[in-house]
Amino acid sequence: MVEWKPQSITALSVSRSGRRLAVGRQSGDIEIWDVAQGFYCNRIIPGSGDPTVQVIVWVKGMGDTAAGEEEGERLLSAGLNARLIEWNLMKLLPKVSLTLDFGFCLLILCPFRRHKSLAYTNTNINR
Predict the structure, then answer these.
(1) What is the pLDDT of residues 51-81, one digit of tens each?
(2) Most buried residue, 29, 59, 70, 107, by most Cβ within 10 Å?
(3) Type and span of the H or E element at 16
(4) Would residue 2 count as lying in a domain?
(5) Is there a contact between 56 and 77 (Cβ–Cβ < 8 Å)?
(6) Residue 69, Cβ neighbours under 10 Å: how many?
(7) pLDDT, tens digit, for every residue of 90-116?
(8) Structural domain contains residue 3
């Protein structure tokens, strides 16, 4: 039998298509749930053990399925560790990771706007 330890949810985001739900856990894991064809966990991106996922957002993709995009959607996450990550959903690994020298990332989501914007406090971004 596998020992299971529940983890708190720290962030949620529904995809633009409404077909997927990204769930950030206290462990740093990100779960991708399929909500269109029954509610089940399709994939899990393993976390590092640090509580790193504070914000998750789906953004419009560029149609590059070879780069890990599905349905033209990209997944970004940010946390208190000053990292902004775009995830490759096929490999379940970071596609792009930006580390801020100081400060924090905020993904500003407004349900009444047609777009999502990214704001950050920093003078130097490292890739």
Answers:
(1) 678 889 998 877 665 544 566 889 999 887 7
(2) 107
(3) none
(4) no
(5) yes
(6) 20
(7) 999 999 888 876 554 444 444 444 444
(8) no
Q: Helices then strands (H, E): number in the chain?
A: 0, 11
Q: 109 is written with which tokens?
A: 């989501």
Dist CA 15 CA 72 (whole Å): 10
3-state helix, strand, coil in the chain (%, to 5): 0, 45, 50
Max CA separation in the chain (angstroms): 50
CATH number of the domain enclosing 112: 2.130.10.10
Domain that residue 41 falls in = 9-126
Residue 50 has which token pair?
């640090």
pTM to 2 decimal places: 0.73
Tokens read off for 99: 């580390």
